User: Fold these one by one.
Assistant:
Number 1:
Amino acid sequence: MAGAGESARTGCRSGKFRPIRLSVRTRDFHSLKSSSTLLWATPQIHPIPEAGVRKAPAFNFFSRGLGSGCFLAPGSCYRGIIKQALNRLLLIIQVLMMKRMASSLWRRTVRQLGKWHVLSPRLTSVCLYRIAVGRMPDLDNPRDMNEKILALSFRTDTSRWSVLADKYGVRKELEGMGLGDMLIPLYQVADSADGIDFDALPDSFVLKTTDGFSRTLVVRDKAACDRGEIRRTLRRWMSERSVGDEPHYGRIKRRIIAERLLPSPEGYGPTDYKIFCCDGEPLYCLVCSNRRMDTFRSEFKIYSLPDWRDLHGISKGWEGGQCTAPVHLEEMMARARVIAKEFPLVRVDFYEEEGRVWFGEVTFTSAAGREVKLTQEMLSEIGSCVTMPVMK
């Protein structure tokens, strides 16, 4: 360091450049350099042009920098450091974006291979889990909620799952349980897009397929809707192949149903109360609010039952504001208990609109066993409450 200082003083006396005063103290310099959490960059003094223009110290994040600095007016040499730091930041962002694009491409490839039956349903699910979660699932000794969902999916009898996950077939099951009064009124059921009779439908309604998720069309004004576009969308949904990562959905006969539209703000769906039942007992409620019907993006909060205590178990970027407990929470829990009594793990969804409880759906594979909206601590807690049956 003494040599560098002497060189600087000599350069100053020769009139080539002025001395630079560093504001970083020695102890700060060493503490930064010893930090393992930062990319260390060492400023280097380079020869100064004769024209009185200062060349900024190089900011080398890597062993080979992208440049040796930039020329700036005297008194502003550290603008070059800032500029190069921003360049490196942009480079890092580009790398992360490329990684995300690669992950998206890999996910689409696996899904397509599953649709073509090149990959088995189990291998498809395991690969998609690895992409989403970042590690391989342990299906021999499952611990958290995701792993237990996958183990139940592929190593137990799921024939009853197909019956209750069918958005049309479940209606008969619920009526048999004495829960038919919470079913949303059904207008029509059709085996194809051409089977929908728009003239017989009311001014507002909902169209959805009986299997899977996100295949939902909300029609608020029948007179203003494009019937041709709706039929094209329904045809596409009806012809899509199943990915295969949730085998019980593949056993459901795909139909189209038209139901009554529940009250909700324009562009949004009603608040969804998703009750997780472990060993037949409702223990957790995941509240899905402000759901946009075009992207199905929502805000989430998870509460313990029956005390409605905020568990702060939502991952960063997904958590919404506080939600008050529904007025009919006890009724929701009682009805969920009837449905869930024969299953180790199941989620029963409800709506509370017009002063009463409406049934949403029964889900056995929440997020297809790749739930990332919940923290790992929350997933482990839910998993610990599930008693696994004898697996095949």
Number 2:
Amino acid sequence: GFRDLLMEQKIVLEYNPLAYWCCCNAIEVINNFGDIKLSKKHKDDSQRIDPLAAAMNALARVLVKRSAEPSLADAIASGNWTM
């Protein structure tokens, strides 16, 4: 999802040399199940991709939190509930 949002310009990096550097060091690897993971271009490379990976993990957590069902406290606070 990160790549798609980046291409749709819903994620904006502006001028961020660290983000660009990490993007240049990263590739995506797809396993037999179709899962995509971030990896370095060369296995033994000392170039870092950690800030990019952290941004992707943070985005995933936000998207999961946004799509989660409302809690009981949220339902009570909204006033749209009965017993």
Number 3:
Amino acid sequence: MHQRVRHSRLLVILTALVTALTLVMPVGMARAATATVTAVAGQVLHRGSNTVTFNVANTAGSEATYTATVTGPSTLTIGAVAPITVAGEATEQFSVDVTVPHGTDPMNVTLTAKVVAGADTSTGTAVLPVKLKAGQNRTQGITGLTAINTIPSQVPTGGIDKAFDWVESTMFHSPWDGSYGAPNNIDIDLGDT
């Protein structure tokens, strides 16, 4: 009888200990990330090629090598990033090439940088302004023009005037089958300008 009571008490104590440990560190609990990612302040994007720089701060006590990726709007072309090795409790920078299309007007663009080292993943974002350089103007469609050509449009959204309206849902494209060869003429009447 005493033997059975001792085993029961031991089982109760072990069960309480396991329960207490589970409350302190639940199964599947995420570890705190050992890095922070931030964009270098004051960066601006322009039409064409740009370089964007991020900081990676390794908050762990030992060196880590991070694989970095940067994503953003599909209209941008964003380059690849080489792996970054950061000493423990240190900060390093990495840069990525970002190409902004030439027709982009001033706006804010959000880039997301993600670094991964083993099971650790950290993400940071940068909201960067796209600004025009001196001599650049906002894009504008040409309205009120009459354009005439002898080539039919391959797409059903319209004729040659759609090549100038700056509306992304319309376009002009000569036939893909090559049935109309070069040269071709386009007559544009700009009206009273």
Number 4:
Amino acid sequence: MKMKRLCWGYFLMLFLALPIFQAKATLVKPLKSTYGYSILDLKVKPTTVVDLQINVTQPTCSTPTGTITVVPDASSTGNTYSINGTDYFSSGAFTNIIPGAYIVTVKNALGVITQTTPITVSMPSPPTIALASAMGTDGQSACEDIAIQPITYAVGNSMDAIVTNLPNGVSGKFESGVLTISGTPSEFGYFEYTVTTVSNCNPITTTGTLRIKEATKITLSSAFGTD
């Protein structure tokens, strides 16, 4: 009889203690952070990467340096940025970047690092000059005191273009990437003109010719008033 009472008492204690064991089992479950890592997981460096958009503005002959702009995913906060893996900044905009290869590195608030493939800032494309008016206008013959047929050149990757050795009365004007040579020559002769680009890159040139014939002139040779 005494043994039965002991057994019933033992089972009663187990029954009453069961919720306590369940509560303890629940408490030892690792807690999750807002970033999805458990407290135990934080002892190991996370490997999650940050989604990136990288915009590169390449140098030109008018602007010899480029820019790199890092745009992370909108949900990412507390990021710092580097293009050399050593110096990190709160802004992802890097300006005055000389041509070369760079590796963009981002650290988020948890110290998660993501690296891109090298980002290339290229050398500026060289200037270009191409005849845009009709073929032969850059080697035309004209007459003194009569307007020449306008000559136009398309000029690329250059801030300006100048032309030298034109006859008096003829000039060049550069606007929106186009050089226009026009006017009425007031002198005759053979003129080999030169067009030269103006930029931070090495200049390039092209040449053309104008053959200006002397105007036919009639002068009174008899006494004044005979005409």
